[in-house]
Amino acid sequence: xxxxxxxxxxxxxxxxxxxxxxxxxxxxxxxxxxxxxxxxxxxxxxxxxxxxxxxxxxxxxxxxxxxxxxxxxxxxxxxxxxxxxxxxxxxxxxxxxxxxxxxxxxxxxxxxxxxxxxxxxxxxxxxxxxxxxxxxxxxxxxxxxxxxxxxxxxxxxxxxxxxxxxxxxxxxxxxxxxxxxxxxxxxxxxxxxxxxxxxxxxxxxxxxxxxxxxxxxxxxxxxxxxxxxxxxxxxxxxxxxxxxxxxxxxxxxxxxxxxxxxxxxxxxxxxxxxxxxxxxxxxxxxxxxxxxxxxxxxxxxxxxxxxxxxxxxxxxxxxxxxxxxxxxxxxxxxxxxxxxxxxxxxxxxxxxxxxxxxxxxxxxxxxxxxxxxxxxxxxxxxxxxxxxxxxxxxxxxxxxx
Length: 401
Known about the structure:
- The chain is α/β, with parallel strands linked by helices and 401 residues long.
- The chain has helices at residues 2-35, 56-61, 66-76, 88-92, 124-133, 164-168, 198-212, 225-236, 254-261, 278-294, 296-318, 326-329, 352-360, 378-381, 383-398, and strands spanning 97-102, 113-119, 145-150, 173-178, 217-223, 268-272, 338-343, 365-370.
- The protein is built from 15 helices and 8 strands.
- The chain has an 8-stranded mixed beta sheet, sandwiched between helices.
- Helix 6 (164-168) links the parallel strand 3 (145-150) and strand 4 (173-178).
């Protein structure tokens, strides 16, 4: 009896220690699944290293695991016979050039170069001939404009293949990139970005389009995490968040000023289904996963208990404690047209998050909620309406001096 009594003071600490260890392991495991989900792949790790690829296109094609291929079949598909996982020439009959883009600020250690495709817009004579044949053809021409297209997490430059004719037909060039740790850009398959490096990738590509390629106007286009990235690039420049002294440029050091002015190469932003914040997105994913697996009541209670340590673990692994969020970045985009697009059937990022961003954004701004559209598939729901909304934004940019 005395032995049992003497052991009791140790019982509670042991139980608490065990609970702490279990919660910590669960939090790390859940964060690992969010950083490197099953559909994430990169040709620098795994079985891809054992192949000798004869061309960049062949190497890029090898980065499609079955889950992404399924997404491509239903979302990227261009026609009954064209899958949308090839290249601009094979899939949409548009000549392209492979490009390499130096990173202004690497988001992940050791990365220096992004890779992508440049598809130049058709010339004005071709467009005039097209207009004579098609009365519904867009009346504008944007030969001095380049759209920088940034894909979502776990995808690559091919996510924008089906959209390219929308821009090419009005003379607008398209520069579509693989973000760091994706596709053929630098990386070792470490993780998806969660809006921590897409911002710097997007800004590096915009700077390249303006300074190296010589385009007079640059429009950012991003979907999902790429949508968050283009908002943050246009709002923060090369900063992790808007500097506290940024509203008083005279107080900034030359380095601080140059980091902020890097965003000046961006003239407009199109963001499709962007998350309002990392926390809002991660919370939705965790609560939905537990509710789907264990039921709304029990799963909801368990998710609520686990959420604080899961979020703390994810933030620590992302280094996101001191970083800004898309919903804050958009408040610092001023005098530049903004188009937000979201689908009502988006199961990953609820469309209400676009409303949250839109509510705090500055004019000129447009919000288009696409009835019935799923995640990253607003174009698929209504290609003609998608083209009209995008052309309207390009016309806004083209009319500004």
